[in-house]
Specification:
Length: 316
């Protein structure tokens, strides 16, 4: 793994972690992201039953970005972005935050949460292609096998729903756009060399990427007032802000800094499977043998990639 492509930190805390990257630490963070993002799909679906997508995203970003920036300041991090990193961080924010948040919000609103999760998590395919041409990362046989098995699993998962998606192609296209935007944001982060601490980098992306979303909310006022939101939705909002955004985005950017792009992105393949299982548990969506078979394919593909990556990191 090239040192020039790792996200780097100007603080002693982050520098120590990245100077001696631990595959075990990276995979632990990745596992946390998989689980917490996986169960966020049905949670977001519940919130969007009462809150419009623009308003939902505005509320989460207005709280999450400044909160994470405040935590960074309390930790003693330098909050200013160096001049040479300002244009790259704007580009990353547009892909990682603006594109993903808006596209996925509209997609989840009009599709079953499980279906939306599957389409959105085609990200590894687009990221692997982009990494090959932009970052010159090699698609090893293990990574190709893992990606292939994972995509087979996702295909099995969504195959019976192809017709339903075909009846709402516009919203399926939104989720596909979200996946491509997420992939492009991941490539952007990996392409540039950063001196900004991960937590501060994450906070500024949330803030900068949230500007177009806040502007859109001002143009399209919500149909309900915040006082009409139920306690259940308030809990969903709290989970989204604290767990799915503040923690998971920080953890994801950290994973991207420690692992090759294709490995990190392939590691997200279990998210839609977990999204389907959690949607069945929380929302009562159907689940059966097809979901179990899909899970097997995804997990086998993931294990092939992760075991090989762990061996390489250990040897280094």
């Amino acid at each position: 793994m090239s040192k020039t492509t790792r996200l780097q930190s100007s603080t002693s805390l982050d520098t120590n972690v990245i100077a001696e990257p631990s595959a075990r630490y990276a995979f632990f963070l990745l596992a946390s992201v998989i689980f917490l993002w996986g169960i966020s799909f049905p949670i977001m679906k519940i919130a969007l039953e009462e809150i419009e997508p623009w308003t939902f995203r505005t509320l989460t970003l207005l709280i999450a970005g400044p909160s994470l920036l405040t935590l960074g300041k309390m930790a003693g991090f330098r909050l200013a972005i160096p001049s040479q990193e300002r244009k790259p961080i704007i580009l990353a924010a547009l892909f990682n935050i603006t594109g993903w948040f808006l596209f996925s919000a509209y997609g989840v609103t009009h599709l079953q949460a499980g279906r939306a999760a599957v389409i959105g998590s085609t990200m590894p395919l687009w990221a692997a292609i982009m990494a090959r041409f932009v970052l010159k990362e090699q698609l090893t046989s293990e990574r190709l096998a893992g990606l292939g098995l994972g995509l087979v699993g996702l295909t099995i998962l969504i195959w019976p729903d192809i017709r339903a998606i075909g009846e709402a192609p516009f919203y399926a296209a939104f989720m596909l756009g979200a996946a491509i935007s997420w992939a492009a944001g991941t490539i952007t982060l990996k392409h540039f060399q950063w001196t900004t601490p991960i937590s501060v980098l994450t906070a500024w992306q949330l803030i900068l990427g949230g500007i177009p979303i806040v502007a859109g909310t001002l143009l399209f006022p919500p149909a309900i007032t915040l006082s009409q939101i139920s306690f259940k939705v308030i809990l969903c909002l709290s989970y989204t802000i604290i767990v799915a955004i503040i923690f998971c985005y920080w953890a994801w950017f950290k994973v991207v800094s420690l692992l090759p792009t294709s490995v990190a992105s392939i590691g997200t393949l279990p998210i839609p499977v977990l999204g389907v299982f959690s949607s069945a548990l929380i929302l009562g969506e159907r689940i059966g043998l097809r979901e179990l078979v899909a899970l097997v394919f995804v997990l086998v593909g993931l294990l092939i990639v992760m075991i090989r990556s762990y061996e390489v990191e250990r040897d280094e």
